[in-house]
Here is the input.
Amino acid sequence: MPRARLQALIDALNDAGFRCVGPKARDAAIVYETLHDADELPAGMQDRQEPGRYRIEQTGTPRMFAWANGPQALKPLLFTPREVLWHARRTVEGSVAFEAELPREKPLAVFGVRACDLAALAIHDQHFMQQAHGACVDPYYAKRREEMFLVAVNCTHPASTCFCASTGDGPRAQHAFDIALDERDDGFLVECGSERARAILDKMALAPATHEQIDDAMRATAQAAQRMTRSLPGRNLRDLLFARLDHPRWEEVADRCLSCGNCTSVCPTCFCHSENDLQQLDGSQSEHVREWDSCFTRGHSQIHGLLVRPDTPTRYRQWMTHKLGSWHDQFGRSGCVGCGRCIAWCPVGIDITEEAAAICGRQP
Here is the structure.
């Protein structure tokens, strides 16, 4: 697909009733915003990520997706940071009436989705929609998810913080996309992943890719995987972590950790939240609100006045042992997809791969 035809895809999705969302350079980061024109995409931009550091710079390349990731994933578009779940109001008869506040916004078509974030999406689908462990389907997440159209872009420019190859989640999109793109200097190779995408692509009359183009695309993502220098010391660390709950490293990392919750905010799989009721002063109505929370906050582990995890060492231990350990019991895999966001956006540069290797006694 020639680069100029990307606008035709955006227009086709707009015409199909979607609100297009894509990556843009704003506030010194690459973030998702409403996308009207392909020229709004971050052409020529590349990110430089290190522990505790994220920068974007202009390189002059014609490519629009020559970067690894920004602070957001799909999470805030589906499991929103704050939303009203229901209203309660007092009727004239004196009873209380409840009304759910389901999402009413237009369905989203998201451009630039990375393979690691598709892997995280599969975990969230399992948590919010598949009634795991007898839980109910979350109608707020499900409404947005069932209508979302995903345009993935296979990653060829991993950051130094990326390690999705070691978790098996990238850099090539494997599932859950409607369209997957391989970016070249002269345009894109297009892979169709759904029937609704087929209906759109058939109208665009794209030329078939050559064998040489396909081989080049596969080679580019394979080389991206080889350039990743970080890795976890294994894909299932459950038994190793739970056998080392008294390891001195928990105290050492806690001396640096600020308990700020940045890692859980940027993580594409974390789903902890709190729920609160906000009442009108006259008692006539209230809103039941769900907001993101973090296992690093003081109140997250409070039960009947008791703080189960009263300090940073126990909170960091909870985060890592859950993410890399007990997620296997819940979801059949680790909760880490190797995006590296928690490394780059940690104010003090704590590296989950380094800490996991130190505690598990293995070289990554």
Residues 122 and 304 are 34 Å apart (CA to CA). The first strand starts at residue 19 and ends at 26. The chain has two domains: 3-226, 238-360.
